[in-house]
Amino acid sequence: MQPIFSKVIAPLLDALPDAILLVDEGGQIMFANLAAKDLLGYEPPELVGQHVSMLIPAHARVPHQRLMAAFWQEPRRRAMTSRPFLHALSSAGEEVPVTISLAPIVLSGVRCCVAALRDASPMQNPVDGTSGGPPL
Fold first, then answer.
1. 106 against 136, higher pLDDT
2. CATH assignment of the domain containing 114
3. In a domain, 56, yes or no
């Protein structure tokens, strides 16, 4: 990555409370901020170079591939709101409830997606896993 990224942008992203992943069009993780460790248990360097599917529970990988292809057909900023919560797979193999927002970006001619993952555990109903708060 360019020096401006490592000197300015990466520290800025590391300051955020949400896990931020930069993923290329092929699904390879190019960057992960420090909050990825808090949310998913992975140190950022463990994620870089891996395919994003490692963070998708097995039962959701095929639908995720279709959704990823659809995203790249019409890349635009969006929150993934098809269900109240999605799940990411932690380093311990546990499903972590998350909300995810996506934004396409082109860096040095490479189409990428910035994914912001927020821990949805505090919003989840402990009985049935649905939203515990009022509808937005």
1. 106
2. 3.30.450.20
3. yes
Q: At which residue do the structure tokens 């140190």 appear?
A: 43
Segments forming the whole domain that contains residue 105: 3-123
Closest CA to 35 of 60, 58, 12: 12
- At 105 the pLDDT is 95
pLDDT above 70 as % of the chain: 86
For 37, the token pair is: 């460790």
Residue 132 lies in a domain: no
Q: How many CB atoms lie within 10 A of CB 88?
A: 25
Place of tokens 């969006």: 78
| Sequence-separated (6 or more) residues with CB below 8 Å from residue 59 | none
Residue 79's pLDDT band (cuts 50, 70, 90): confident
Express as a percent the part of the chain with pLDDT over 90: 69
Residue 104, amino acid: P
Q: What's the number of domains the chain is made of?
A: 1
